[in-house]
Amino acid sequence: MAQNGEREQWGTKIGLILAVAGNAVGLGNFLRFPVQAAQNGGGAFMIPYFIFFLLLGIPLMWIEWGIGRHGGKFKHGSAPGMFDVIWKNKLAKYFGALGLFISITILIYYTYIESWTLGFSLFSILGLYSNETRETMTGFLSSYQGITTSQTFSSILPAYGLMLVTFALNFAILYKGISKGIEKLAKVAMPLLFIFAIILAIRIFTLGTPDPAFPDNSVANGFAFIWNPDFAALVNPNIWLAAAGQIFFTLSVGMGTIHAYASYLKPKDDIVLSGLATASTNEFAEVVLGASIAIPVAVAFFGLDATKEIAAGGSFNLGFVSMPIIFGSSHFPLGELFGFMWFLLLFFAGITSSVAMGQPVVAFLEDEFGMNRKKAVTTLAIAVLAAVQFVIFFLKYGFLDEMDYWAGTFGLVVFALIETILFMWVFGADKAWKEMNDGGDIQIPIFFYYVMKYVTPVILMVLMIWWFIQSALPTLLMHNIAAENIPYIWGARILMVAIAVIIMLLVKKAWENNHSEVK
Amino acid sequence: MGLTTSGIIFLVVAWGIIIGLTVFSFYKVFKGEKKSASS
C-alpha cells in the first residue's frame, strides 16, 4: 500500500492523453510502419491495418485503461495488484508479474537505443557525418556502438556517456512524479515531436526529384511505393498477420504501461474518450507523418530497388544508416538542421515511451512496499543500470535482439491475451463493460462488447500461436545463430530468467507483508 | 511509376479516417474541459 494512503493524480486530462500517446508513439511509428506498409501490399495493407485497429487496437486500449483505473481504486499501480483484484486467485498476481517483467526488460535496452537518437541529433548539428555512403555510415554506426573503430569514434565512451545522460534524464523525470515529471515532459515533448515531424514531412514533400539525373528517384515514387495498392497481396495470410502485429506494437499495449498511467485517474474520470484520443494521436503520428518521411525520402535519394533492400535490412538500417546519408547529402540543403530535427523527434518519441516503461515498477515499489518515490526510482535505476551493461558490451553478439524478441515481441502478445481473458471472462464481460464506460464522456458502441469478449482474444490467440510456430520456436532453438554468439544468447536468457525470478519473489514478499498487516 | 488513382484514393481515405478521428476526439476532449471549467 502507498505509505500515506494517498496516490498522485494527473494534473489535466490533456496531459494524461499526451502522456499515454507519448507512451504509444515510439521509434516504430516513424521507422517500422512505413517499412511494413511498403513490404506488405502498399495501400492494400491499410485494409487489414484498419480492420485490426478496430478489432484489436482500440479494444485493447480500452481494456488496459479499464484494468488500470479499476486497480487504482484499490491503490494498485501495477499489474500484479490489478490482476489480484479482478481475479480472486493466488496465481493472479504472478500473471501480473509478467507486466513488470516486460516493462523493465524493454526499458533496459530501449533506453540505450534512445540514447543513440540523442547522440545522432548532436552529430547531425555538429556535422560529424556528411557525404557518407552506405558502407561508411554503417561503419560510423558500428564504431559508435563500440563494435568497430573509425576516425570519428575510437572507443565506446561517447555512446556510454550519452547512455548515462539519457538514463539520468529518464530517472529525473520519473523521480519528479506523475504530474510534475511525466505529464510535464509529455506537454513539452509531444507538441515538439509533432512540430518537427510536420516540418520534416513538408520539407520532404517539396523535395521533388533531388537529383535530376535520376528522374525516377522522386518523393512521388516514394509515396507510390507505400500507397499504390497490391490487392493480390490480400490473399496472403502473412499480410494480415503483419497488419495485426503492427497495430499491436504501435499502440504499446501488452506491457503494463497504460495500466500504470490509468491507475492515477479518479474512479469517475473518463477513459473512453481518453483512450480513443490516445489511439488516434498515435495513428496520426504513424499513418500521416510516419509514412511521409523515411521511405519517401529514401526512394528520392536511393531509388526504389535500393530502398527495398534498405527496408529489408530493418528499421535501424533505415533510421541510423540511410537517413544520416540523406541528411548529409549535398542534395539536401540544411541537412544538418533537418537531421537534428529527425533524431530529436525520435528521441522525444523514445523518452516519452521509456519513462512509461519505468512507471509500473516504480508504482509497484511504492504501492506494494510502501517505498517513497525517491527510493523506488533509485532502486529501479540501480537495477536497470546494472543490467544495461550486458546490452552495451554484448550488443554485437545479439544480446539485445534476444531480449527484444522475448520481452518486446512474444511477451507482449502473451500478456495481452492473459489480461483480455482475465478482464472479459474472469472478471466478467458485463462488469468490465460497466467499468470501462463508467464516467465516460462518450459511451463505447455496443459492437465492441462482442469484439472485446470474443474477437480480440481469438485474434490474440491466433497471433500467439502463429508467432510461436513462425519465430518463437526457431528463436528458442537458436536456428541461424552463429556459434560464437550462443554463449551470449544464453547469457541474455539467464538475465531474463533472473529478472523474472526476482520479480516473482518480490510479488510474493509484498503479498506476505500486506497480508500479515491485514491480520 | 508515380501514385496511381487507387493509390491516391487509399492515401486520402486513410488520412481522412485518421485525421477525422483525431479531430473528433480532441474536439470532444476540449469541449468537455471547457464545460467542466465553466461549471
What's the SSE blueprint?
The complex is a heterodimer of chains A (519) and B (39).
Chain A: H1 13-24, H2 27-39, H3 46-73, H4 79-86, H5 92-125, H6 134-144, H7 157-176, H8 178-205, H9 219-227, H10 237-250, H11 257-262, H12 272-289, H13 294-302, H14 304-312, H15 315-327, H16 335-369, H17 373-393, H18 399-426, H19 429-437, H20 447-476, H21 486-518
Helix pairs in contact in A: 1-8, 1-12, 1-16, 2-10, 2-12, 2-15, 3-4, 3-10, 3-12, 3-18, 3-20, 4-5, 5-7, 5-16, 5-17, 5-18, 5-21, 6-15, 7-8, 7-16, 7-17, 8-16, 9-13, 13-14, 13-15, 15-16, 16-17, 18-19, 18-20, 18-21
Chain B: H1 5-38
List keywords for this structure.
heterodimer, A: 519 residues, mainly alpha, B: 39 residues
What do you see in this structure?
The complex is a heterodimer of chains A (519) and B (39). Chain A is mostly helical. In chain A, 75% of the residues lie in helices and 0% in strands. Chain A has 21 helices and no strands. Chain A has helices at 13-24, 27-39, 46-73, 79-86, 92-125, 134-144, 157-176, 178-205, 219-227, 237-250, 257-262, 272-289, 294-302, 304-312, 315-327, 335-369, 373-393, 399-426, 429-437, 447-476, 486-518. In chain A, helix 5 (92-125) packs across helix 17 and helix 15 runs antiparallel to helix 16 (335-369). The radius of gyration of chain A is 22 Å and the shape is globular. The mean pLDDT of chain A is 94. With 39 residues, chain B is mostly helical. Chain B has one helix spanning 5-38. The interface between A and B is medium-sized, with 32 and 26 residues.
